[in-house]
Structures are given as C-alpha cells and as structure tokens.
Specification:
The chain is mainly α. It has one domain. It is 81% helix and 0% strand. Helix 1 packs antiparallel against helix 2, helix 1 packs antiparallel against helix 4 and helix 3 packs antiparallel against helix 4. The protein starts with 5 loop residues before the first helix and ends with a helix.
Length: 143
C-alpha cells in the first residue's frame, strides 16, 4: 500500500470489506431468509415480492460493485509496489474472475421477473466462500 497516504489505504480497505459485506450479506439474507419466508405465498405474490426486493436492493448492489472495483484496483496496485510471491498472481486472478461472476449474477438477481434467483444466489454463495478463502491465502502470502 502507499506509504504516504495511510488514511487512503485504510479507507480503501474499509470500502473493500464493506462492499463485500453488502454483496455477500445481502445474497445470503435473500437466500436463507427471504426465500424460505416466502415459500408459503402464491407464485404471483412471491414473484411480486421478489421483484420489490430486487428493486430495493439494486442500488446497493451497484454501489457495492463500484466500491469493490475501485478499492480492489487500488489495493492491487498498492500490492504491486513490492515483490510478490509467484503464487500471488494466479490466486488473485482466480479471485478477480470469481468476483466478476458474483457481480454479474447479483446484477441478474436484481432484474425484475427473474425466476432463477434462488439457484443464482446459491452460486453466489459458493463463489463468495472461495473468494474469502483466496483472500485469506493472499493475506498469508504477503504477511
């Protein structure tokens, strides 16, 4: 990270974590709270309620994607200032690809009329688990 702007480094780390919490926490809440809570509703009511939730959550998804992209790029550029172990590059590449998968799927989840949300959120959940695991490995590699 930059040695002349510790406040910016701290803010970008905070923004990255907050963005991840917003995306993954929202997806997990939807998958494990909203989906089961609405199973007893009629298909039409469940669809309308899901669309309303999607509309309400979409601005947060977009803001969190933007926050993750900005902070992730900043954090990566900061890491490139010092020598990195050879394993860092393929691991960060996989992490970035999985993050792009999460962004794209959550964008689809927030579209109206999406009947595949529950299945898509399951994919997000598994990708998020791998992303967090890879983040821990990267932290260990550069500690």
């Amino acid at each position: 990270m930059g040695m002349y702007m510790p406040a910016l480094d701290i803010f970008m780390r905070f923004l990255h974590i907050l963005s991840a919490i917003t995306l993954v926490g929202g997806a997990l809440t939807w998958k494990f709270a909203f989906v089961p809570a609405t199973e007893h509703l009629s298909a039409e009511t469940r669809s309308k309620t899901g669309d309303a939730l999607a509309r309400a959550w979409r601005p947060f998804v977009l803001a969190a994607i933007l926050g993750a992209l900005i902070s992730g790029t900043y954090n990566l550029v900061g890491k490139m200032q010092s020598p990195l172990p050879p394993a860092y590059h393929p691991i960060i590449g996989i992490k970035i690809l999985l993050a792009l998968h999460v962004f794209a799927v959550l964008w689809l989840v927030t579209k109206p009329g999406n009947e595949k949300r529950a299945r898509q959120l399951t994919g997000v959940m598994f990708s998020a688990i791998v992303i967090v695991t890879l983040g821990a490995v990267l932290r260990w590699l550069t500690a």
